[in-house]
Amino acid sequence: MASFCASCGERRLSPRDLTIRHFAIEASRQVSDLESGLLRTLRALITRPGLLTREYMSGRRRLYLSPFQLFLLCNLAFFIGEKGVGASVLSTHLTTHVSQQPYSPLARRMVDAAIRQRGETEQHYAAAFNATVDAQASTLVIAMVPLFALIFAGVEWRKRRPWLQHLVFAFHFVGVFLLLFIALGALLIAGALLGDRVLGVDASRLIEEYENTLVPWFMTGMSTLYLTLGFRCAYGDGWVGALIRGVVVSSLLIVVLFAYRLILFFTTYYAL
């Protein structure tokens, strides 16, 4: 009898395949394969910018997680870590929307009108808004991916690269920065906890500094470095061209973040 089914290609089962022991062996092998693939992917993502995109576009895909899988894992890690450090870089609570953004005057008027219509205090409205925004933020982060893909297509327009290449690189770029954001937050919290004991530093003030000041500087500096290396590896750019493109894209990071926060505000506002 043939070892594989001629119709579906599946291996024919034997009595041994139906045992608990075989099930456990298969489960452990799958977990091991997942762990090795995840570690290999994360190592390439962080230490070799652009490599995953180049490998994916070259057809070498089995060794790594897919761009979308990797993004989902980075997104999950970010929002778990963000809650752990008590920050709201991407969740963006109501106070940030109505007082610290370019669209804050519009947001303030809309919120005031909603509060009057609902007949409740601003504190109650803010509690409902913040709970809703926390639920929506992790899903809406993916809106950054096509925005960056458009930017990558713009700075690489002369080479006429496939749209898929820009999209894949955008998934990788957003994913690595979600990880780097939370790593910075963890370092700041660790420093704050140490400062509370040694220097008397207020941890809450350090977290606020992280959200409002250090994040933009961190985004700009680290993105320029990462993108310069990424453009060289993923697109084959020369050093000068890669650096120029890295600086251009980095200068647009704040614009993308503002666009994300604006989308998040409107989706949350109309969801209440």
Low-confidence blocks of residues? none
Total strands: the figure is 0
The overall average pLDDT, rounded, is 81
What is the radius of gyration?
23 Å
Number of domains: 1
Number of H/I helices = 11
Structural class of the secondary structure composition?
Answer: mainly alpha
N/C terminus separation? 63 Å
The largest pleated sheet is described as:
none
Helix and strand sequence: HHHHHHHHHHH
Helicity, as a percent range? over 70%
Portion of residues in beta strands equals under 5%
The shape, in one word, is: globular
Give an overview of the whole structure:
The chain is mainly alpha-helical and 272 residues long. The chain has one domain. It is built from eleven helices and no strands. Helix 7 crosses helix 8 and helix 9 packs antiparallel against helix 10. The radius of gyration is 23 Å and the shape is globular. The relative contact order is 0.12.
Summarize the structure.
This protein is mainly alpha-helical and 272 residues long.
List keywords for this structure.
76% helix; 272 residues; mainly alpha
Strand and helix map with partners:
Blueprint: H1 20-47, H2 51-57, H3 67-85, H4 94-99, H5 104-118, H6 122-140, H7 144-155, H8 163-198, H9 203-235, H10 239-251, H11 253-271
Helix pairs in contact: 2-8, 2-9, 3-8, 6-11, 7-8, 8-9, 9-10
